Amino acid sequence: MTIGFALLPDDQCRPVKSLDDLATLWPREELRVWVDLESPSDEDLQRLGQIVGLDDEALDDCLHGDQQPRVDEFEGYIFLVLYGLHGLKEQEDLDPHKLAAFCGSRFLITVERHPLLSVRQVRARCGRHPENLLARGVDVVLFEIIDTMVDNYLRVIDRYEDRLEELEEQSFDMDVNEEVLEEAAEVRRDLLELRRLAVAQRHLLQPVARGEYDFVSETLGQQFSHVCDHLSQVIDSVDSLRETIVSIRDNYHAGLTRRTNEIMKVLTLYAGIMLPLTLIAGIYGMNLPLWPPADHPQSFWGVIGIMVFIAGVLLVYFRRRKWL
Prior knowledge:
Largest sheet: 7 strands, mixed
Radius of gyration: 36 Å
Number of strands: 7
Number of domains: 2
Number of helices: 9
């Protein structure tokens, strides 16, 4: 299994198959190496730290805890904590995966607690033409990973946009139920988390784009600026989609109000029809001499006929007024 790639001083590139391989190659001057560890053990990280000389606390942060996106500067390298949105299997819910990266002048080490699609994609490109990517510098490899990661942010935004368009269409339906609000609330929570990550990572990458770190080439500044622009686009898109969620809630409540008013109108009209019938039945049921007399064989059907006639007249009147 290949865990990385090494560019030797003679411009030959060879795969790094284990930490033992890395230990053998590491003493060579002018070596450029990228090592990617997926779900390593604590022992693997300790061995890695001994070979390269990495900070123990930073190594512990690679696997444990959910730190905010950040960049720390050490003597000889910088340490970054980033978050990607896609694992190897794309999920419906937002599930950020942490990426820890150590970037020095001649090495890049990436560590994922769970495999990241963006890192796998760059590894595949590097596996096909490792000399082309590593020859440009390990900071270029880091940029490619971050750029691919942010592109996936935009893909997630597109997915949520399609999902909210469907919910907005459903919210116009008179028979819409509360599931629309529940799903909109879930999307809103995911979008808030996405916005938080985008803001934090844009803040992290802005000094990188300005060339404030020695281990990232100044020539990459403009490219990292484009990545920051993409993150700004993500933030703006999230704000726009949050307005769509507000619109969905308003549409739902407006539809609920219309439905309630329609029900109340129908009930009121039926009550209006029943009211005169109830009046006739109440008067006729009094123990007083009436016409037609209560003991007359046709009196019951005569009163019923009068009630049906009055109800029919009211129904015709209500329909002509377009109340029914």
